[in-house]
Amino acid sequence: MTESKANTPLIPSSSRKHPDFKQSVKLKYVKLGYYYLITHGMYLFLYPLVVVVAAQLSTFSLQELFVLSDHLRFNLICVVVCSALLVFLSTVYFLRRPHPVYLVNFSCYKPDDDRKCTRQIFMERSRLTGSFTNENLEFQRKILERSGLGESTYLPEAVLRVPPNPCMAEARKEAETVMFGAIDELLAKTSLKPKDIGILIVNCSIFNPTPSLCAMVINHYKLRGNILSYNLGGMGCSAGLISIDLAKDLLQVHPNTYALVISMENITLNWYSGNERSMLVTNCLFRMGGAAILLSNKRSDRWRSKYRLIHTVRTHKGSDDTSFSCATHTEDPSGKLGVALSKDLIAVAGDAVTTLGPLVFPMSDQLLFFANLVGKKLFKMKLKPYIPDFELAFEHFCIHAGGRAVLDEIEKNLQLSDWSMEPSRMTLYRFGNTSSSSLWYELAYSEAKGRIKRGDRTWQIAFGSGFKCNSAVWKALRSINPAKEKSPWIDEIHQFPVEVPKVLAH
Hints:
Keywords: Acyltransferase, Membrane, Transferase, Transmembrane, Transmembrane helix. With about 500 residues, the protein is an alpha+beta fold. It folds into two domains: about 30-95, no CATH class; about 100-495, 3-Layer(aba) Sandwich (Peroxisomal Thiolase, Chain A, domain 1). The chain is about 45% helix and about 15% strand. A hairpin with a 5-residue loop joins strand 9 and strand 10 (about 335-340). Helix 5 runs antiparallel to helix 6 and helix 8 (about 170-190) crosses helix 9 (about 215-220). The chain is globular and about 100 Å long.
């Protein structure tokens, strides 16, 4: 993988008898021109109209302007009615238009070095627990080798300890460490006072203590008494974007408000100590991490915000039995709790993302998709399904780092380049599957690489148990200067990307 996007070869091979028009330079520019025309069509139409009107007005003499003024004076009723209508329509527009949602800043928690877990440490600690058979220890070793995880991921103290101590006190300790670490960094970045936060949303799938995680944050930072707090549980790795969608809706009805979103997972009480292989996979993939995101609907915050939320899309495939049961928190035959992952997970994830695609197309692709659909359904034309060029619609992709095989499937289904997949693969390699927070480590990676430029669009894609597949599209309000950023990547970004072999099909 290289730092610049790999270009598809434009010269056809010598074995072809006819030129490959799909790869030709001319067709490439035709498609780029089409995207530009549709995206900026309104402006391209209005500019000539404004020029024509201005040219026409410039031909008016001073005497003609006086005549026009007298004419309007004698048609007072018409002028008053038109003015009132214009004021009414303007008022309705400004009152009903949605409030912009800005991403002021975000932070990703980076654990201390003593929490690092190499593959060797993982296997040693797993062996020392005495919980796993030799066959299943070998199974975990093979999963680790194929997982896409590197040698510097993190696990909580309770899991690394021998013997492990997965109790409620340790789980609370992990949650506080991750949440407060991310929030402290975010408050330092934004200079925001805790009392200014009006909405608080925390998502964590399996760890749902009482008092809630929201209550823990409110108590620690002494947030105001009328804060709107929400605790989302059991919604899997896609819950982070569900939280963003909820915050967006709340910011539409609560003006001049800040919303704090915290996305995390808890490893301590998720650690599986049995011998069901479908449950052992989570031990090999999930790692410690979390993110805090500050959103605002204050127009005055636009100047200091990084991104504007363009739209969110949520899809749910829970009505399908295969999708519903591909990730389940359950007990094994010996009564030990764990999360069982079905072999159908990879196919379900790939299908869900493909289904989601048309919902986030830009207008240019939606028109082509609609034309393709009409041609096939209405006119019974034999057309191939329209597959858009996602890399023309979006400059950056943040795809949930669920596992190497999952990323391979998404890359194939969306036909993405290695450059576009790099943030997801490097996040999986460096931090592992940090559940719903992985999207923010990926965005931080793109920022640390200096890739985010003003106007760039980023598509975040998350999927999780249920089965849900959710999206958010952000537009960069300014170019991000890595030298002025603080993120978990900054001190080591020069080491990436690294080569991570893809899973080979058998």
